[in-house]
Amino acid sequence: MRYKLKQFKNLSLALVAALFVGAQAHAADRIMCAMTAHSNDGLVPPKVLIEFRDDRGSAMVYDGTIHHVYGKPIAAVLEQTGASRYTISWTVENLPLQGNTTTSAQYLVRLNAKTMKVTLTAYLNGYFNQSRGSGKCQPLS
Length: 141
Description:
By secondary structure, this protein is mainly beta. The chain has one domain (13-21, 34-140). 10% of the residues lie in helices and 51% in strands. A hairpin with a 5-residue loop joins strand 5 and strand 6 (102-112). The termini are far apart.
């Protein structure tokens, strides 16, 4: 069964970054990841902003889908899996599909902080297939 997400406008880097500015009193560790989708279903966002907090003890994420559904960054589960490797996961609830249907989507990002390369896997609730993407991240000042 095929599904098609409603099209979301791409957010500019400046807009996305501005939403994180001032979120905490101390300086945060932020990266912007430019993604290349390996599927055409719209689940892989073109850009993902990840903000590490609490000395990389927690994280917030933001992309066009999160902006459309929540209007602000959301908390993610952060796990350090190696000296420079992290797994970041989050769920977007009430994700609109074609028509008046909504569902949820789970996202899993694997980040190599040394090379700044990232892979993303997205799972849409109710469907067996998964969407994949990969990309490169850049630190934001």
